[in-house]
Amino acid sequence: MPNLSDEDFLTELNEAMIERPLDLTNEDDRKRYVQIYDPSDPEADPVALLTNQIKRARSSSSAHLFSGFRGSGKSTELRRLQNKLQFLGYRVVYVDLDGYLDAYTPVGVGDYLLTLAGAFDDELHRLKLAKGVSVWKKASGWLSKWEFEEIGLTADAKVVKVDLKASLRDNPEFRQRLRQHLDRRLEVVVKAVHDEIGAQAAKLADASTGTGIVLLIDSTEKLSDTDDTNHAVRSSVRVLFAQNARRLRFPGVHAVYSVPPDLTVLEPQALSTNYEGRVPSLTAVTVENKGGGRNERGVALLLEVLQRRHREIARLISDPVQLDRLVLASGGNLRNLLFLVRSVVERTFNLPVAARTIDGAIKGMADDFRYLTSDENAWLQELTKQQWPRLATDDDRRRFSEFLERQVVLPYRNGTEWYDVTPPVRELLL
Predict the structure, then answer these.
(1) Which of these, 80, 87, 84, 94, lies nearest to 24 by C-alpha position?
(2) Nearest to 20 by CA among 68, 95, 76
(3) Distance, CA of 324 to CA of 319 (rounded, Å)
(4) What's this model's pTM, rounded to 2 decimal places?
(5) Displacement of CA 144 from its chain's centroid (Å)
(6) Cα–chain-centroid distance for residue 137?
(7) Mean pLDDT of 385-409
(8) Residues 356, 408: contact at Cβ < 8 Å?
(9) Residue 264: which of 148, 95, 401, 392 has the closest Cα?
(10) Which of 23, 281, 408, 413 could share a disulfide with 67, CB 3.0–4.6 Å?
């Protein structure tokens, strides 16, 4: 507000720029939301495409993929999909696997399905759409029947004595041992999970006058590698979706999974063949056209994003030229944009800020990437020229996945899909 002190204003602005999914059932969040897809071109809107896929699925059981890099607004768009489908009469359940999966441990289809079944059941209980024994307790019983004592799960006559939910999330060694044993009994595991989710879906359908049951599964794309995992985590996610489409379908459920953006490039045939339609994907907002030149519509959209977040943004950056510089430096990445504004706030001692403060925020965003190897530098230079990644070797594919995850490389779409290096990093290339 105009009557706030400078310090209170900066605190309020900093809070407004925190990156988080927007809840479109909340009036304040709806006011913050900016429709970045051109209403006159619904084919460019991933939510519109997913809605059509689900409406036109040939059966009540289908599997769909939705791609988006971190910071692209994926969780917000999944919530928009939820609202749109609910308006059409579907019963929609949103499940966020963040907090259920160990983000730095490889995942197998067996432990992934057990985790998903438990998370789905948790959400149904939270919404008061289910009652009785939890799936986690049921799954412990399944494990005792499947004779898992040899991996350290001591069982009495009925229930395995282990906190399965916490162990899957917090104990990488347990998860690894469990995965190996589940793989040996995989079809038994798949049947148990399918029967459980199918039964829950049938109850929801009986209590609903809607046109179907939709399960939105978020955050699988957050699984990431460390220096120690040597690409094993990303590789496991790739195998999970490229080779297990049949196992990821549940009776009476339209399942929508969020997946890493590299999958659509690395496994295009497997995904297009085994799932319903192509994979709708979120991209960065085009603030620079393919081949160069400012994109006025994209710049205007991101300026509107900042205005919606805080209408007094000009109190921080009064010069429109400097505000434009921040938008262009973000590369059209919403996360980068919000990070840059917060970085400016951190550096602010007097209002409005000087150009050197903007310089420092932009320079600071590139600091983590100043030590690119000569091979990485050359690979990125080639990408900037071709505007498409070189994927000739396994090393190329790993590098592409890593750079997408770190948002060194960003995806775009202007009629066709293309890639570019985020602008502050591009300035570092020789």
Answers:
(1) 80
(2) 76
(3) 9
(4) 0.90
(5) 34
(6) 29
(7) 92
(8) no
(9) 401
(10) 281
**Contact call for residues 254 and 64 (beta carbons, < 8 A):** yes
What are the strands, taking DSSP E only, across 83-183?
A: 91-96
pLDDT at 208: 65
Sheet of 254-259, strand order? 62-67, 254-259, 213-218, 91-96
Q: Which amino acid makes up residue 95?
A: V
Residues pairing with 66 in the sheet: 258
3-class DSSP state of 211? coil
Question: What is the Cα–Cα distance from 388 to 359, expressed in whole angstroms?
Answer: 29
* Burial per residue of 348-382, b for 16 or more beta-carbon CB atoms within 10 angstroms, e otherwise: beeeebeeebbebbbebbbeebeebeeebeebbee
In terms of Cα–Cα distance, which of 348, 330, 305 is closest to 422?
330
Confidence band of 174 (pLDDT split at 50, 70, 90): confident
- Collapsing DSSP states into helix, strand and coil, what is residue 190? helix
C-alpha to C-alpha distance for 233 and 145, rounded to whole angstroms: 29
Could you please report the per-residue DSSP string of 342-374?
A: HHHHHT-SSSSPPHHHHHHHHHHHHGGGTT--H
Q: Which two tokens stand for residue 254?
A: 């339209």
Which helix (DSSP H) or strand (DSSP E) does residue 299 occupy? helix 296-309
| Amino acid in position 302 | L
Task: Report the candidate in 333, 66, 81, 114 with the shortest Cα–Cα distance to residue 219.
Answer: 66
Q: What is the pLDDT at residue 161?
A: 52
- The burial class, CB within 10 Å (0-12 / 13-18 / 19+), for 174 is buried
Of how many residues is the chain composed? Answer: 430
Amino acid, single-letter form, for residue 338? L
The CA-CA-CA angle for residues 277, 36, 253, to 5°, reads: 35
Distance, CA of 271 to CA of 265 (rounded, Å) = 10
Residues 211 and 91: their CA atoms lie apart, in Å, by 8
* Alpha carbon distance 405, 401 (integer Å): 6
pLDDT tier at 159 (50, 70, 90 boundaries)? very low
